[in-house]
Amino acid sequence: MDLCKYINSKDVAAHLRIIHYPFNTLEAAYLVFFCRSLTLKEKHKAWQEIIDAMPDMAPKDHLDHFCWAYFGDSIHACLKQHIKNEQFILDAFTQIKKGAFYVRTFDANDKECSTSTCSNALMTDIDDVYDYIHNYITDDEGELCKYKVYCAPDRSQKRFCITLNRNDEILDVEIDSEHYPQPQLDWQLETMWFAFPTPFKRGDIVIDAQRPEPSDLRDGPFVFDKTAAEWLTSRGKTGYDYTDMTADGWFLDEDGIVYGACTHDYMSLEYYPPEKLKGAQRILLPLRDHIKGEIDDVLFVNAYHSLLMEEYAKKIRLRYDTDEGCGSQD
Q1: pLDDT class of 328 with cuts at 50, 70, 90
Q2: Are 35 and 108 in contact (CB under 8 A)?
Q3: Terminal CA-to-CA distance of the chain, rounded, Å?
């Protein structure tokens, strides 16, 4: 069973294939849950394959992140119940024809799209929702990745939220109601962390695989330092979650200034081709070489200063080289 295909980064997936990483059943369930490309139907199929092909295990014997009473002694049983609960919610939603519906648009990182023409229109028919999605929502910047359809079918307290991709395939289902069974894995898997190996070395230039062409320097490539896997392992298993699976490195702010920070999903990192760096991103090249010990402090500072001033000069020219600015030839 090729579990690496569920990893969001092709480079991390390739590395774990090469080293023949021995996934356990809980790790397999985690990878499927966080796989960004799978539809809900594909996740259910993948979890069923895990149940059929991999041994059962008691999560509490392997991790100690929270009260495992909700998991019990069987990850298989938990997966089966999760699939059943999500399917129950999905079936309930598909029966809804009338109600109060509205739509929001999101990018690949679950950030609401700022340039989409999605309005606050309130619709009362599910057919109108799909017509609205297909014919009235635009995406001028190409950032739109998914839709969230919110629905209140009647005067009760239950509220549905269905996430769709651009092909109208369902990615996720949620319901806010005490009268419906809740998917259990959502918050349980989000309270875990795993120390998966990665191929990245200190000084490599990497990027989040979901942001291949970022418009903001802060969301772009950065120089890798290390992951938190070793740090987490040394501190024990309690008190941390999936947001602690970080990668430290050196980033660029909107002005090209270097700062140290972290990104919260090292399993989504991929190598970034140095030849694709442009503008202020080129600062990462001498920074990479300095981190790897290939150039000394003086050469790095000179290169950094030269590139920073070059980009600053470009901004000044763009600001003033207009019909009204001092760069006018009239």
Answers
A1: very low
A2: no
A3: 70
| Distant-in-sequence, close-in-space partners of 230: CB < 8 Å, separation ≥ 6 | 195
Give Cα 266 distance to the centre of its chain: 10
Runs of H (alpha helix) within the chain: 10-18, 25-34, 40-53, 75-94, 126-135, 185-189, 229-235, 284-291, 297-320
3-state secondary structure string, 110-134? CCECCCCCCCCCCEEEHHHHHHHHH
What confidence tens digit (pLDDT) does each residue in 38-79 have?
999 999 999 999 999 999 987 665 554 444 445 567 889 888
List the Cα angle 270/272/273 in 5-degree steps: 140
- Can you tell me the distance from the alpha carbon of 325 to that of 327, in angstroms, rounded to the nearest whole number? 5
- Supply the Cα-derived Rg of the chain in whole angstroms: 24
Strand partners, 106: 112, 146
Average pLDDT in the chain: 83
pLDDT of residue 42: 97
**pLDDT (tens digit, 9 = 90+) per residue, 259-291?**
999 988 899 999 999 999 999 999 999 999 999
Q: Which residues contact 98 (CB under 8 A, 6 or more apart)?
A: 124, 125, 126, 153
